[in-house]
Structures are given as structure tokens and as C-alpha cells.
From TrEMBL:
It comes from the Bacteria. The keyword Transmembrane applies. It is found in: Cell membrane. The chain crosses the membrane at residues 6-27, 288-308. SMART domains: HAMP (SM00304). It is a multi-pass membrane protein. This is HAMP domain-containing protein. Residues 309-361 form the HAMP domain. The keyword Hydrolase does not apply. Pfam families: HAMP, His_kinase. Keywords: Cell membrane, Membrane, Phosphoprotein, Transferase, Transmembrane, Transmembrane helix.
Length: 588
């Protein structure tokens, strides 16, 4: 089976499809976030600049009021009024009333709450929109400075700031108020700026404040003062620029801080907002997207698993079953899960295997019966051949007058005939086969005293069972075709050997031997069907070895170290026990 199943392939394909989508979304989202951050900073900077410009416009407009007021005839003429007594006369009172009316009108012309004061050094009085009073010249001199002046009033939560601007006529007398003809002071409180900060904070995310290092902070009325103070302390660590934006970390929270400076007052407008609130919709969108991707992957894996379980697993079972059939395992049966198409296929497969198994069992039994009949036939061919040779020997011994040999042969022939007629088994222990061989060689030694023989077979081998009469024909051929044609003596040796992969028993003689072409012809004759020219003994032995032990067993010939021919029986190691158990079971 392939290493990568259908489930793995489908999951891998799904992941390969989703990875580019997630990567493209991540890149697009990051780019959008960066663009959003840039645009947000620019938007905040523009809003702060616009707010600052509104404040500056109002303050600059206020800066023009003293110049406008000084052009008024009543106010301009106020500088030339001198008192002849401690009290104002009617004309002066009328002038003061007109001036107060004009101051009131001027103050009402703006949305900001302002206060105008006109100081007359000649009268020693200060006129406001609703009062006329004496003033302290020394205090006025201390407060008169160029540009806008800021003074903190009150303490704690009640603290506020007063902005004031002085104008003197003539301007050269600014540093000497006692020499001035007319002094105008414009005041407004920080509450006006707080009103604008509250409007600027209308969207709820901002928390703008006015800040001047070394002087103080003007908060909006709903400001988080502790947090604002911490942010301002962080900003003080570096020099503030006229316009800038920073990102600060406080308690694990990121804040986007924008700063815009006022060229008119020197105060900084500082606005901050939590970055989390800005990117919260983006993060929510990201979470929804990644959740959707995860859900898609999960559903895809579930669909892949269902396809794997419903299709590939049954197909894999079929493939495994067919492989077992290939190795002749007909006991395999498939169990279907659920009532689907594969249930029908598995049912037909089981039915097919049952029919095949039944057919093979029938064929196998027929082959066993045919094989047993063939063995009986081959075995029966040995007996006439052996009897023929024995009778030839008796005849020869009778002609020579060797009655002892005739008697011995007759007795041995009688024993042999009694054994074969009573022997119902197809296999016998090797020890019995070797006993017959020894008996045969003793008979041949009686006929030819110069004959020498030896049997060297391990004790373990002698307990194994071998086909009946597979060694005796080899010994007989060695004596008749190897030793007999030569004058004088000869030797026959029988050896058994247990190898790692093969069991061997060989019979070799010291006879005349055979040439290479003769050995090759003998080998070919044994592989061909038996005919009149082919001796039945050796052919019979080879056929029984093939039938008993399979294609890896048989009979082979080669030159012997004794000078004659070596005939070797061989079969695969490990089959002797299996064959023994089988045969015993078959003939129990």
C-alpha cells in the first residue's frame, strides 16, 4: 500500500489551498493596518492642528481687541480726563457708562468668556464692564509683561489658569505704567479651553489636554487625570517637538499619542487614545477569519476522513484480501460496516473465496489421490527390477556351484519379499533402508569377496523417514555398473550429511567411472519420460524424490573422489520433520 493514504493527501491538499489564502490575508491585513496607522496618525495630527488653529485664532483675535478699543473716541478720550476732586462729575460718569457698554458689547462678541479692563493712570481707576475701582500701581507694574501671561489660580481639583494680555498707550510706556496714558488688559480663563477640549473629545476615544512643561495641565472635564499624568511623564523623557506622534506602553497597554504645539501661547495640545480600541474591529475581523479558516480545515479533515473511512479503508481491505489470496490463504473473509455498496462487494468477495476454496480443496484431494497412486505405481516398479537382478545373481552362482551364495541370496530374497509384501507405508526410517542396503552389500561381497563398503550416516538422520527403496537402487547401480565391469576388487561408500539448507545422502564407488558426456547424457535421460532404453531404477528414484519433497529435491551425479561415480540424493532442510508428521498422520 502507498505510504500516503487518501486522507493524508486530501488534508495536505486542503492545507496547501488554505496556506496561500491565510498568507495573502495576513499580508493584506498587515498592509492595511500599516496604512490605517499612517492615515490615523495623519488624521489625528490634522485634527489637533485644526483644534490648535481654532484656539490660536480666538487668542489672536483677542489680541486685536485692545487696538480696536483704543480707536474708540470715548475710550481714547478717557486718557485725557483728570479729576479735580475725589468724585466723578456727571460728564465723567456718562463717559464711563458708555465705555462699560462698549466693553460689554466687545466681550459678548465672542463665545469665550473674556474680561476687559481699562486702566487710567490719570484717574487712578480701572474700568470694567460692570465696575470702576482703584487699582494698585505697583501690582500692575509687576503684572505688565509683553505677550500672553498665564497665572495659576486655586489648588487641587479647583485649580484653573488665567490668561492675560496688556496693551499700553503709548507703547513706549509699557515698562513704565505710571507714564502711560491708557492701559488695557484682556483676560480669559482656562474654562474656555476646557469647553473646546470637551467638544474635541466628543467621540469618546480621545482624551485631549493642554500642557505646558513647568507650568501645568488644562484637563478636559472628564479626563482620566492619573493616566494622563503618567503619559505626560513618559513624554517628558524626550524633548517634545512642535508636531509629532508617539506610541507608548503602559501596563501592557499601547497608547497612540499625538502632540501639536501652539506658536501663540507656547502650550502643547496632547491627545492620546488606546491603540486597542482602534485595532479592536480589525482584531475581531482577524479572529473571525482565522476561526473560519480553522473551521474550514476541520470540516475538510472530517470530509477527508469520511471519504477515507468509507472508500479507501474498504478498498485497502480488498487489496490485502487479494494479496492473501495470492499467497493461497483462502480463509480470508471480509466484514462490512454499514449497509453500503462495499457491503455488497464484500459479500460477493466472500462468496467467491468460498467457492474458490471449495474448488481448490477438491482439486487438492484429487491431486493427493493421484500422487498416492503414482507413488504406488513407481514403488511397484522397483520390486520386479530388484527381483530380476537377484535371480540373475542366483543363476550365476548356481552355474559357478557357489551354493552358499545361492542359499544366502535365497534367504535374503525371502526376507526382502516378506518385508515388501507386509510393508504398507510409503516411507520407512532411514535405518531400515540402510539395513536392506547392508544386507544387499553383504550378498554382493559373498559373490565378490574383494568388494569393500562403508556406511557413514549420522544417527539423527537414521531416525528420519525416507521414501521406500531410494538408496538400494543407487547401491545396486554402483555395484553392477561400477564394480562388476572391473576385474579385481572395488569399494562402495554411503555417506549422509546434514547441511544448513540441504540434506544429502550419496553413494559413490571406486569403479570404472563415467566420462563427462556420459554423465551429461545420464542427467538428461532422467529428466525425460521413461522409455525402453532408460533404466527404471534411477528414473524411479528421482521421480519419487520430486513427488515427496518438491522441485528442490532430486538425484544428481558427479565424478567420485574414489574414481567412479557419485550418485547423490538431496532434499531441502527442514522438510524431514514436516513430511514425517504428515505421513504418520495420513497412515495412522
Amino acid at each position: 500500500m502507498p505510504r500516503h493514504t487518501l486522507f493524508r493527501k486530501m488534508v495536505l491538499l486542503l492545507v496547501m489551498m488554505l496556506v496561500p489564502i491565510v498568507g495573502l490575508y495576513y499580508y493584506s491585513n498587515r498592509t492595511s493596518t500599516e496604512v490605517l496607522g499612517t492615515e490615523l496618525n495623519q488624521s489625528n495630527a490634522n485634527q489637533l492642528s485644526f483644534f490648535q488653529s481654532q484656539v490660536n485664532t480666538n487668542i489672536d483675535l483677542f489680541s486685536l481687541w485692545p487696538n480696536l478699543l483704543i480707536q474708540d473716541p470715548d475710550i481714547f478720550g478717557f486718557k485725557d480726563i483728570f479729576l479735580s476732586s475725589e468724585y466723578f462729575n456727571l460728564d465723567i460718569i456718562n463717559v464711563v457708562k458708555r465705555i462699560q457698554t462698549k466693553l460689554n458689547i466687545q466681550e459678548s462678541s465672542s463665545n469665550w468668556k473674556t474680561k476687559l479692563y481699562i486702566f487710567s493712570p490719570s484717574l487712578g481707576r480701572v474700568v470694567s464692564d460692570n465696575d470702576v475701582d482703584h487699582y494698585d500701581n505697583d501690582d500692575l507694574k509687576k503684572r505688565m509683561k509683553p505677550g500672553w501671561q498665564v497665572k495659576k489660580m486655586g489648588q487641587g481639583d479647583e485649580a484653573y489658569y488665567v490668561f492675560s494680555l496688556f496693551t499700553a498707550y503709548p507703547y513706549s510706556s509699557f515698562s513704565h505704567p505710571e507714564d502711560a496714558n491708557l492701559i488695557i488688559e484682556l483676560q480669559f480663563e482656562s474654562g474656555n479651553i476646557q469647553d473646546m477640549l470637551d467638544k474635541f473629545k466628543s467621540d469618546g476615544r480621545r482624551d485631549p489636554v493642554y500642557y505646558k512643561p513647568g507650568l501645568g495641565v488644562i484637563y478636559n472635564r472628564s479626563a482620566d487625570k492619573p493616566l494622563t499624568e503618567r503619559i505626560l511623564r513618559q513624554l517628558q523623557k524626550e524633548t517634545l517637538q512642535a508636531e509629532e506622534n508617539r506610541t507608548l506602553e503602559l501596563d501592557g497597554q499601547t497608547y497612540l499619542v499625538n502632540v501639536a504645539a501652539s506658536a501663540t501661547t507656547g502650550w502643547y495640545l496632547v491627545d492620546y487614545m488606546p491603540l486597542k480600541e482602534i485595532v479592536a474591529p480589525i482584531e475581531q475581523s482577524n479572529r473571525l477569519f482565522y476561526f473560519s479558516v480553522g473551521l474550514t480545515l476541520l470540516l475538510g479533515c472530517l470530509a477527508a476522513y469520511m471519504l477515507y473511512a468509507q472508500v479507501q479503508v474498504p478498498v485497502k481491505k480488498l487489496v490485502v484480501a487479494f494479496k492473501k489470496l495470492q499467497h493461497e490463504d483462502y480463509s480470508i473473509r471480509l466484514q462490512a460496516k454499514g449497509n453500503n455498496e462495499f457491503g455488497f462487494v464484500f459479500g460477493r468477495f466472500n462468496s467467491m473465496v468460498e467457492q474458490i476454496q471449495e474448488l481448490f480443496e477438491n482439486v487438492y484431494m484429487e491431486r493427493i489421490h493421484a500422487r498416492e497412486a503414482r507413488l504406488k505405481q513407481l514403488q511397484s516398479q522397483i520390486n520386479p527390477h530388484f527381483f530380476y537382478n537377484c535371480f540373475s545373481f542366483i543363476s550365476s552362482m548356481a552355474k559357478l556351484g557357489n551354493m552358499k551364495a545361492v542359499v544366502a541370496m535365497s534367504q535374503n530374497l525371502s526376507s526382502y519379499y516378506r518385508y515388501t509384501t507386509r510393508q504398507e507405508r510409503d516411507v520407512v526410517p532411514l535405518a531400515e533402508e540402510l539395513a536392506f542396503v547392508r544386507n544387499y552389500l553383504e550378498i554382493q561381497k559373498m559373490r565378490k569377496p574383494q568388494l569393500e563398503f562403508s556406511i557413514d550416516v549420522p544417527e539423527a538422520m537414521q531416525r528420519w523417514e525416507v521414501p521406500l527403496l531410494v538408496v538400494q537402487p543407487l547401491v545396486e547401480n554402483a555395484v553392477l555398473h561400477g564394480i562388476e565391469p572391473r576385474s579385481g576388487g572395488g569399494c562402495v561408500r554411503i555417506v549422509g550429511e546434514i547441511g544448513a539448507t540441504e540434506i544429502r545422502i550419496w553413494v559413490e564407488d571406486g569403479g570404472k567411472g563415467m566420462t563427462g558426456p556420459e554423465l551429461e547424457e545420464l542427467r538428461r535421460s532422467l529428466s525425460r519420460p521413461m522409455n525402453e532404453e532408460t533404466g527404471c531404477g534411477l528414473w524411479n528414484v528421482r521421480q519419487r524424490m520430486l513427488i515427496r519433497y518438491g522441485e528442490d529435491a532430486g538425484l544428481r551425479f558427479m565424478p567420485s573422489a574414489l574414481g567412479g561415480v557419485r550418485a547423490e540424493l538431496y532434499w531441502p532442510a527442514g522438510q524431514e520433520t514436516k513430511r514425517t508428521v504428515t505421513q504418520r498422520g495420513g497412515h495412522a
